[in-house]
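Anti-sigma factor antagonist
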Amino acid sequence: MPLAQNPLSVEVELPREDVALITVDGYLDVDTATEFQAHLANQLHHGRRHFLLDLSAVPFMDSSGMNIILRIYQETRKDAGSVHVIRPTPAVRRILDLTGVSITVPVSESVEKALDRVDQGPDAPGEQSGREA
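Predicted structure tokens:
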């Protein structure tokens, strides 16, 4: 079986009982999206309502990755949860901004700032085009 050309590494930490910090390393594209989605679905299944997606080590993301982020966003909103993107690389940030995803899904520069936003709730002030205030 050939190795994936762009392997994906996904680490999950639980800073709180209902919060999953998911650190992604590698290309988030059509070849790796299913693996990423499985990690998110597993955390959702275990009762996590808030997802902090650290994309600081993702050099490239295509529409497959964006679709998964938007799907988990929709799922978490059903249970008053949230999704936050943390430290996206410039290439990923550009895609999030160009497609408008960063308007819907907050972007934070640190785990601490994302956790503050979780505490403030979904209608917290300070978002403007997905950028930190």
